[in-house]
Structures are given as C-alpha cells and as structure tokens.
Amino acid sequence: MTCGEIIKILENWAPPEISWEKDNPGLQVGSEENTVKNILLCLELNMDVINESIDKECNLIITHHPLIFHPIKKLDFHKDKNSRLIEKLIKNDLTLYSAHTNLDFTKNGVSFELAKVLGLKNLDFLVNLQANQYKISVFVPEDKVEEVAEAVFSAGGGVIGEYTSCSFRTDGTGTFFGSDESSPFLGGKGKLQKVKEVKLEVLVNSWKLREIISAIINSHPYEEPAYDIYPLKNKNVNYGMGVIGELERSLGIHEFLKHVSEKLGADSLRYTSGKSDLIKKIAVCGGSGSELLKEAVYSGADAFVTADVKYHTFHEANGKIFLIDAGHYETEIHVLNRIESELNKASKNNFKIYKYSGSTNPVVFYNN
After folding, report:
1. CA 75 – CA 335 distance, rounded (Å)
2. Which domains does the chain have, with CATH numbers?
C-alpha cells in the first residue's frame, strides 16, 4: 500500500474538511506515492520520534499535532528546531501526515477514545457540528433510479449516523419539451413528453457535494438531469465536539478523581467542585476543551474532563459542574489506539504499525 492509500483510509474516517478553519491537517512532509514499509504513530513529532521510526524502518509517521501549523518563511537547519526535523525527514525519505482537529471532531476520534478509557457508556457528541450538509433531490426515470442511487451512495451520499444508503423516494410525473437541438433519452424532440419518474432525495456532506453531483450526471440517462440542492441548518450526527456519556455506577468525588488519574495515567489533576457529590453523567473533551464548558453544564453532566483550563474558567464552573483538567497529553494520547485499530483493518499484514515507545509530553510535575 502507498502512503496515499493509508491517508485515504484515515480521511474517510476523519475528513480534513471538518477541521477547524485555521488548522493544518494533512500531508506535512514527504510523498503520498511512497510504498509503506512500516508506520509509527505518535502525538507529535520530535527528533526521538524520527530516530525511532528509522530504527523500526517506518517510512510513514502519523501524528495528531501538525508539525507545520503556520506558513514557513525560512528553513534554518542550524537554529530552528522544526527546520531540523524537516531536514531529517527529507534526508531519510520519510512521509509525515497529521490528523488534528478533524480527528477531534469525528466519531470514535479523540474524545470518544477518552470517554472509552474512562469507562463511559451510551456515548454521543456533546455538541454536533451543523450547517455543513445539503439535501439533493434528483428526478430519475423509475427504471433507472437504482442505478443513480447506487452512484450517489458510492460517492459518499446518504450517510446518517450508523446507517448508509439512506434516501427517500417519491413517485411522480415529469414533463419536458425538447428543442430541435435536443437528444431526449425518452420520447422525441419537438413535442411535450410525460414520464413516470422518481424523486430521489439524499443527504450529503458539503465536502462531498461536487463529487456527488458528478456521480448523478454520469449515471443519469437524461441529457439534462434535473436536480435541486438545498443547504441545511441541521446538526450533523456524524461529526461534533466533545462527548457525553455515563459510568455504569455513580462514584464519589475522591473515588472519581482516583479513577480519572489511574485510567489516564495522569500524575496530577486540577479541579474545582461542582454541584453534586456523586458523579455518573460525564462530559469529556480531549485536549483544550474549555470552550465547551457551557454545553457541558447545559447537558446536565455531573463532571467535565478536559485540559488546558484557565483560572477564570474554574471560577465559572465552580458550583455548577465538577471540572477536571487532566492534562493535554493525557487526554489525547489514547486516540493512537484507535488509529492503530483503523489501520490494522486495512493492513493485511503487509506492514507493521508501532506506537512511539517514549513520551512527547513536555510537561513535568514537581512533587515536594
């Protein structure tokens, strides 16, 4: 398999189009054309990660945090750390790919894995992304509707949650009058035609729109297919931010703190008290999730586990929800297990997948 084929697997799961607009997911350095030898997974890149990838003959490195986040103005191999990393990647013909906020916002991504590590059940997005879908209605002769529908489904249309091939169909009558320059599929030019047709309606994600319109045109028998495109304000059930779930049983405050610390391998937790002494319903967001505090409170969660919480955010949460800052690295690193699982499904044992054996966490705790 090529690096590009691996990237396609990841992007079918976590489309880069759902990422934060100022993010830079995707290919960072290297070539998608290279054949994969082995793969190394890590949260972010440093020189130790590159050295381990070379030792383990991994020519594809997949990170969560992008190496290149801002435009590069110069490459100074002597003074600049990132420049030296890029130099070593190029000299060793390594490909670097990053899935960042698109991995945060997809189902079974960063926050879902955090929730699963904490033992939460009945998982759902805390906040769904919205206004990034369209409904397409296309009018098809009744004996050709399955052919057009299959083309739309194959192009990625009709996905709702855990269901694919979703559509709605309405029988009706289409009319048309072809000019002398027309080449009608049914009937003849120069006279009014009435044809039994089916109105096929399908939900599509905005980044799939062009591809699906092309699929409609290529599969439709008519010279001029008729279709409508409706922008939607709907919440997208497939993508969102944060996760809400429940423990199998309620835990007391100190029991819950111990549970979070042990499950996440967090040496230190910062927290503020909520309104309940028992914790069962929990909101989580891997990485910097403070902006979801209001949604976590509104959801009725007893606790909210995230990272990078500011002092004034703790003040805002105090007495409303049990807010825990468990660390950025500690709340995100578990997604590597899911990436490994997704890629193992497609590897066919043609290559090995490794997780970086060390830690890229720059935060060190001092205990007096």
Report:
1. 31
2. 3-100+334-355 (3.40.1390.30), 107-128+240-326 (3.40.1390.30), 132-232 (3.30.70.120)
Residue-wise pLDDT tens digits, 320-349: 999 999 999 999 999 999 999 999 887 676
Strand 235-252 and strand 270-272: pairing?
Answer: unpaired
Tell me, what DSSP letter sits at residue 39? E
Q: Which of 248, 294, 254 is nearest to 126 (CA)?
A: 294
| Number of residues written out for the chain | 368
Q: Phi and psi of 302, rounded to 5°?
A: -80, -30
Give the C-alpha distances (Å, rounded to integers) separating 206 from 99, 100, 104, 123, 231: 19, 20, 19, 25, 9
How far is CA 21 from each of CA 25, 69, 169, 278, 316, rounded to the nearest angstrom? 10, 12, 35, 38, 27
Q: Compute CA 23 distance to the chain's CA centroid, rounded to the nearest angstrom.
A: 13
**At a CB cut-off of 8 Å and minimum separation 6, what does 331 contact?**
110, 114, 264, 284, 285, 286, 287, 305, 306, 307
- Take residue 192 and report the two structure tokens written for it: 């009014």
Q: Quote the distance between the C-alpha of residue 206 and its chain's center.
A: 15
With left for phi above 0 and alpha for psi between -120 and 50, is residue 49 left, alpha or beta?
A: alpha
pTM: 0.91
Q: Give the model confidence (pLDDT) of 107-159 as tens digits.
A: 999 999 999 999 999 999 999 999 999 999 999 999 999 999 999 999 999 99
Rounded Cα distance, 48 and 36, in Å: 20
- Contact of 283 with 292, CB cutoff 8 Å: yes
